[in-house]
Design goal:
Largest sheet: none
Distance between the termini: 30 Å
Mean pLDDT: 80
Number of strands: 0
Order of helices and strands: HHHHHHHHHH
Helix content: over 70%
Strand content: under 5%
Length: 243
């Protein structure tokens, strides 16, 4: 759960700084920092993807996962939630208006952004399954800077999203720990973990491209690939074709 704790601290620290700075944080600083983090995210994604022992597994996982995600319209669903949140709370107030509504708007908006996405899912799985919190540490840095910007514009309600981060990521990490116990001894070299990580790296690349404003990839629609990759490995092992 180390990664989740780091993430909570980052959100709280970023929210506190943003609340203090208000709208005084220059937009160019925010943009440059986010682009730097985007480059780092690309490096992390490439490193993860190149760890595959059989690149065909991540390839088919992404292809099948993308088709399934598009059929389920996962990206559309997440965007719908965001629009509904903004329609429900965002249009009713500006900064400094009714305190209760301001806190709610900041809480809902930041919670959706911090807790929905491949980094949340893959990072929590790695943290719970392997004790590897590197990906969540990267996500924590992203969330920390995002929290500064959100709190500066939406108010201190962003701080409350730390609770959501704890519940969602902590829950996913806990489930991963239970799954790991049921699956027996698991390490970074376990074949299905290797391919899950490599497939996740491809999705992380999509996030990096988006952060750099190079291409908006519907990464949410690729999320099923993370579940498909281990399934392919287990199927191949059952057929005597895997390690």
């Amino acid at each position: 759960m180390t990664g989740t704790l780091i993430n909570i601290i980052a959100v709280l620290l970023g929210g506190a700084i943003g609340s203090f700075l208000g709208n005084r944080l220059p937009a160019k600083i925010q943009e440059t920092v986010m682009h730097g983090l985007g480059l780092l995210t690309l490096v992390i994604g490439v490193d993860m993807a190149l760890g595959s022992a059989n690149i065909l597994i991540p390839m088919f996982s992404v292809l099948l996962g993308g088709m399934l995600g598009e059929l389920l319209r996962m990206d559309d669903g997440l965007n719908w939630l965001g629009r509904k949140a903004e329609e429900r709370w965002g249009s009713r107030l500006g900064q400094g208006k009714v305190a209760g509504w301001s806190v709610t708007r900041a809480f809902v908006t930041s919670s959706l952004i911090f807790c929905v996405g491949p980094m949340t899912i893959l990072g929590s799985i790695q943290d719970g399954l392997l004790g590897d919190y590197n990906l969540l540490a990267i996500k924590s840095t992203l969330d920390g800077f995002a929290a500064i910007a959100f709190a500066a514009s939406l108010g201190p309600g962003v701080l409350l999203s730390g609770v959501t981060v704890g519940l969602v990521q902590g829950g996913l990490a806990g489930l991963a720990m239970l799954a790991g116990s049921a699956l027996g001894e698991v390490s970074r070299q376990t074949p299905w973990v290797v391919e899950l990580t490599a497939t996740g790296g491809i999705l992380i690349l999509g996030i990096g491209l988006t952060l750099l404003d190079l291409k908006k990839v519907r990464v949410a629609n690729l999320l099923p690939a993370i579940a498909i990759a281990p399934g392919i490995v287990w199927a191949l092992q059952g057929l005597g074709m895997g390690g």
